[in-house]
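How a chain folds remains the central question behind the approach discussed here. No coordinates are needed to read the tokens, only the vocabulary itself. For completeness, the protein is quoted in full, as a sequence line and a line of structure tokens:
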Amino acid sequence: MVLSLEESLQKEEVLEDLLLNPQSFRFRDAPEVVVAAEQWVPHVLMRHGETGNLIASGPMINLLDMMSRSINFTYRLVRPSDGSWGAPLPNGSWSGMVGVVQREAADMGLGPFAVTRSRSLVVAFSQTLFFEDVVILASKGKPEHNPWGFLFPLAPAVWAALLMAMTCTWAALLILGVWDFESGRVNRALDALFLQIRTLLRQGMDCDLPGSAGRWVVGGWLLVAMVTTWSYTGNLMSLLTVRAVPLPFQTGQDIIDDPHINVITEQASAYTDIMENTKEGILAELHALLEVGRMHHKPLNMMAQFLGTLVRDGTHVLFIDGSTSLKLQADIFSKTGRCEFYKARETFMPLFYAMIGKKDSPLIPAIDARIQQLLASGLYNKWVLSAIPNATACVSLSTSITVKEPLTLATTWGMFVVLVCGLSLALICFVVEVLFPRLSVEAARKDML
């Protein structure tokens, strides 16, 4: 007959050996240890076999198998009814796996669990297994081309400096009087200005420049105009062949400021517990989204489904741990060959993760000794990476892509708007020039009469 862990620990010699020699301790009677577990890829993968039995795999199961052989116990996995890790309830009890261990319906919780103060009051934590942040996982925008992109090869400061240089050159030429126009002052000023514009547009500059002062001024302007136009042409060519990929949400504040974005996070988890107890700061503001219906708590095993639907549509983002984020992106890449999602720059709630046991459980020191040996060998990290094929495929994302396709009206209509505005202005000037002499002649006739 298989003994339970509680029955085995009631033997004084077993308990004494366990407390004095945790590193080398082994059970003689191989008791059964009840372990609360739930799926968390890539750490734990659970499924039901053909006969309905529970089959588990993953790095944490490898760790549990190693401990069972080293300490000499068998184990039986049980799942919490709500499928969660555990959060405090109003009556003082806990939900999820933490609640199962607290009620002593299980001897251990596989987890791994985020180490928090509230949990440490009801269960005992083992040696830390790893450290991890909570991240925002969002959908990449579609590559887009700005129809006003022809203005972008030069920064606004360069456009301003170019306008200032043109104004200074124009004023210097007028003051120096280098052109001896027979027309009036207004026409002379306009002619000097249009000559500068023609030079900037590479249309030539056919005029005499008597005196060295004028030549130095115009020569300086020619140098500025040539360098600017060459730079503009090269940068414009690059912009026409590159499409920007928008990654709009990089911080928690970006999500708060966009009323059309909803947040999905794991239900009854350490994240929800911490946010509920945070009174100010970005976490408190994110938690406030729950009151307006913009934050939703869902089971962890449904995150892949939400990623492929709501997050891909651009209406939701996931607020999850880093390893799950990495696994979900890698699975999508393995299926489609595309990196459709990205991890935001800002991270939250850096937490340590560990297994749990009953409060004051004597088995925890023996588990800690095995975990220390495992971590020293680097074996757990190797198991995690081997459980995530294509783990690094979507880690470093480019925010732009190169395209080879004809220009369309949808991508160049900004230039046509400028052309239409210029033609309209020219038409207005033409009408004024035609009508003004006629009005002047009619006014002169009236004066003569």
User: Anything to note?
Assistant: The first helix runs from residue 5 to 9. The first strand starts at residue 32 and ends at 36. The radius of gyration is 36 Å.
